[in-house]
Amino acid sequence: MEQLKYSEEKVLKLGKTLISELELDSTVNTLARWLAHYIAELIQKIEISNSKEEKKQLKKECCELILELWNKRERLPIKNPTERLKPIISVLELLKEREHPFIPFYIPNNSRNKNTKTWSEFLKIVKENSEKIFNKSLLSLIDDKILEKDNKWVENHGEFLSDEEKTIIEYLNEKKSIEIEYVDFLEKEKKKTDSEKISNLLNQLEALLDEQKKALLSLRNTIVDGKNN
To answer: Which of 224, 39, 44, 173 is nearest to 165 (CA)?
Structure first.
């Protein structure tokens, strides 16, 4: 049976989380409310029972119900892991069927052709800045509290999550850690208001775009001057 894939302790731990997530006082899903109440009662009976045989039967019934509830979680009034990250997922979906836009490429260091070297320098700036713009814009969609909660799902119930869910969370954590380079920078960011953070982000994006524009103008001047000489 399905519960044999996981230890009873882990399934019961998942059950407690589901009960908490369902917010029993506010949910209008009658079946979910009844199942959650019943699972909560079973867990309580398991904890107070002194009979090994009774505990065994209660755990079996409780684990089966928890997994049944978990398998129908799409129809439950709970926030599933990565559900609040859908805007980011939709962006990542755009890149799924084609090569990543920031492919590595070789930039010659000692080219005799002045224009080739200038184009290479321009492409390097475009590539590096485009990566930064993409990452910063992507991370602007991430709420730290949401990602923190999803990380707790991975930590506490990772066995029950799909590979895709875990991969998305892992990817965003990696992007987040790359973006935050210094601890003191992180502390300063925490003290800023949402408005200040957005303003700071837009200033950074503007500076990166300005740098690309300057590189383009420099390329234009070099090529035009070279043709005129």
So the answer is: 173
More confident residue, 47 or 198: 47
Q: pLDDT for 117-156, tens place per residue?
A: 778 888 889 888 988 888 788 777 776 777 888 888 888 9
Residues 6+ apart with CB under 8 A from 154: 81, 161, 166, 169
Residue 213: closest CA among 125, 102, 109, 86: 125
Candidates 25, 78, 208; CA nearest to 131 is 208
| Each residue's pLDDT tens digit, 146-172 | 788 888 888 899 888 888 788 888 877
Grouping H, G, I as helix, E, B as strand and the rest as coil, residue 135 is: helix
pLDDT digits (tens, 9 = 90+) for 170-216: 877 877 776 655 444 445 555 667 788 788 889 999 999 999 999 99
Q: Report DSSP letters for the chain, one per residue.
A: -GGGGS-HHHHHHHHHHHHHHH-TTT---HHHHHHHHHHHHHHHHHHH---HHHHHHHHHHHHHHHHHHHHTGGGSSS--TTGGGHHHHHHHHHTTTS--SS------SS-S-HHHHHHHHHHHHHHHHHHHHHHHHHHTT--HHHHHHHHHHHHHHGGGS-HHHHHHHHHHHHHHHHH---HHHHHHHHHS-HHHHHHHHHHHHHHHHHHHHHHHHHHHHHHHHHHH-
